[in-house]
Amino acid sequence: MKNFSLVLFFFFALVVSAVAQDAPASSEAVDKASTSVSRLMVQSMGLNESEYIQIKALNQDRLAKAAEVAKMYSNDTEMRDARLKEIEGNFESDLFKILNARQVDAYAAFKARPEGNFLSMVNQVSKSSKK
Questions:
Q1: 54/6: higher pLDDT
Q2: Cβ-Cβ contacts under 8 Å for 72 (sequence gap 6 or more)
Q3: Which band of pLDDT confidence, cut at 50, 70 and 90, is reported for residue 14?
Q4: At what angle do helices 118-130 and 2-45 cross, to 10 degrees?
Q5: pLDDT tops 70 at residue 47
Q6: CA 12, CA 24: separation in Å to the nearest integer?
Q7: Cα separation of the two ends of the chain
Q8: What Rg value do the Cα atoms of the chain yield, rounded?
Q9: Residue 55 CB contacts under 8 Å (≥ 6 apart), including other chains
Q10: What's the CA gap between 55 and 19, in Å, rounded?
Q11: DSSP 60
């Protein structure tokens, strides 16, 4: 019984260690991507500091949810795409509450550029979190 408890404890410690190492990598990738995208948005849309802080938080939330969805539905592309569209719709709804009309037009132009493409951001974060 003593050996069993010891083996169980080491197994639990190993699992906790593996999970602890995996989580920061994905959150680090999300943070890096959201910071990069938010800075690009500041440059192209003419945002002030307050708007940058709000939009960075929105981008972090959006990319974290998207990475989770990409991982959960990796085998079901139809469901993954539907959930990603829902996440993007929620993001834009919250974003448009922050922006003025000129900035909304600038966002539409930003979104058309390759670095503003949501799916490429999701793929970047997903690839970074797998490493």
A1: 54
A2: 80
A3: very low
A4: 150
A5: yes
A6: 19
A7: 38
A8: 19
A9: 38, 41, 42, 47, 95, 98
A10: 29
A11: H
For residue range 15-27, list pLDDT tens digits in order: 445 444 444 446 8
Q: Please tell me the pTM assigned to this model.
A: 0.72
- One-letter amino acid for residue 73 of the chain: Y
Structure tokens at 90: 């929620």
CB 111 within 8 A of CB 53: no
Residue position matching structure tokens 């639990």: 12
CA distances from 70 to 6, 13, 81 (A): 37, 28, 9
Percent of the chain topping pLDDT 90: 47
Cβ atoms of 112 and 9 within 8 Å: the answer is no
Record the tokens describing residue 72, joined without a space.
């959960």
pLDDT in tens, 65-85: 998 998 899 899 899 999 999
| Single-letter amino acid code for the residue at 67 | A
The total number of residues written for the chain in this structure: 131
